Amino acid sequence: MKLRVEVPKVFEKLLPPMRYKAAFGGRGGAKSHFFAEQIILRCYQRKTDVVCVREVQLTIKESVKKLLEEKIIKFGLENAFKITDNEIRCIHNDSYIIFRGMQSYNATNLKSLEGFDVCWVEEAQTLSSVSLRLLRPTIRKPGSEIWFSWNPRYKNDPVDKFFRPVPPDNASVVHVNWNDNPWFPDVLKDEMKIDFANDEAMADHIWNGHYEVVTEGAYYAKLIYQAEKEGRITNVPYNPDEPVYTSWDLGLDDHTVVWFVQIIGPAVHVIDYLEVRDTGLVTDPDGQSVANFILRKPYVYAEHYFPHDVEVRNLLTKQTRKRDLEQAGLKPIRAGSALPIVDGINAGRKMLAKSYFDADKTEPGIERLRHYRVEFDEELDTNKPKPMKNGAQHTADAWRELAVNLFDVKRRNSHQRTAEIEYDIHAEDYGERSSRRRGRTTGMDDYDHEAY
Prior knowledge:
CATH superfamily of the largest domain: P-loop containing nucleotide triphosphate hydrolases
Number of domains: 2
CATH topology of the largest domain: Rossmann fold
Number of strands: 21
Largest sheet: 8 strands, mixed
CATH architecture of the largest domain: 3-Layer(aba) Sandwich
Structural class: alpha/beta
Number of helices: 12
CATH class of the largest domain: Alpha Beta
Radius of gyration: 29 Å
Strand order of the largest sheet: 3-4-5-2-6-7-1-8
Oligomer: single chain
């Protein structure tokens, strides 16, 4: 029996043998349909053992088993396959397909998958780094292949870091969207139009396969998306004529975060970002320290903003962390804004609307801010009125501290500004009098603090 099967042209790259085959993109691109059809065809043609994997699979209903059954019917191969509750077998060559969730495996019991010919990882965007690390060397049969299909979520998801932007040499990777699918149905076209009309950023993620830039319950994601659209995430060089302000969040058991900004006219220029782990503030066994990282940068500093716990006493030096940092050369230090978190977040939002980010140096910080969101209550299926501790909170806390303190800088400077005026009393005509103003102004003069 010969079968003639048409596939979208974009998938031709995935037809020849290759260790890794990956298809990512938006909804409606037929990624799952392509891989499902290839599995059924291959199992029918020759003895092939397949394991279909996803990160979490509590029941068989959560697997791609139903999709594979539909492909068997589409090809008219009902008599060639035996379908049970948990697996699918090809009767004439004993090919078989099973379905597993990676969270039920560990390094020991995962060895049971060593003899499989094909492993298909569906919804690979949810695959953990541990699962990916365990899975790759487990599928080890000569000529074996691992297939991945996913709708991109975040650029730091393990599958994206593995395949993008530069895939391994033994990988075939395609980006496929709805417009690559010649059978894209009209009903989905209508749904797509509605999504783009309601929320362009989210629709761009869902249908065009771009990274999710606006997460439900996110504090800053829409503002970051707007900054991208307006070209405010770009090349933002250091201006040596203006001072640099830093804002910190201290991570004792986690990472320490530092933002570096300058005030240029009415705008905030975010020129740098630092994120370090397992490094002392002023001393480290390797001779490194966060203070050294800061002081080595070619910046002239105005002030350094810290959370209130900078006043906590260091058990080794018998003095506060603030004093330790000042002795290391970081001066002046301002500790802890008194605003409630919600007010600080609002200040951070208003500052973000006037901020320009250096695309290269601040990219990790931008991504963290993008994912800063409210905590979600699974039982009540609703958001809680507080931020989630998902790793982004340290970056967001430093951003909030920065926003509040920069407002205070402007307010202090506006109160302190004075001018001395000298008149030439010997001038014959008032219009010929020369005047000279002497007064110190700062880069904050034109800063629109009312935007806060």
